[in-house]
Design brief:
Blueprint: H1 10-17, E1 27-29, E2 36-38, E3 48-49, E4 52-53, H2 58-79, H3 83-91
Antiparallel strand pairs: 1-2, 3-4
Length: 92
């Protein structure tokens, strides 16, 4: 009968049995974007949970930043003095 050469330590024994209790998680589908989704969680892609927008996504932040940038640029253009009148005066 084979006899183990060394005692199996508690750590080694527990490591061997650590993954025996794992069960596969169920994956749902987002109602809005049809992407994979953990159950009872908001979608990280579109920010919706049960059809209601609950998260501000990266795309939303990029869109709002673009709008703010355009508004800032239009304000700067309207506040800047026009050089057309000066250019016409110097040509005459």
């Amino acid at each position: 009968m084979p006899v183990p050469k060394r005692k199996t330590s508690k750590r080694r024994r527990d490591q061997r049995s650590a993954n025996k209790g794992l069960k596969p998680k169920s994956v749902a589908q987002c109602q809005t974007c049809q992407g994979p989704l953990s159950t009872h969680a908001a979608c990280q892609g579109c920010g919706y949970y049960k059809g209601v927008k609950v998260l501000r996504t990266k795309t939303d932040r990029m869109y709002s930043r673009g709008k703010a940038r355009e508004a800032k640029e239009s304000r700067a253009r309207s506040a800047a003095p026009t050089n057309d009148a000066d250019a016409q005066g110097s040509q005459e």
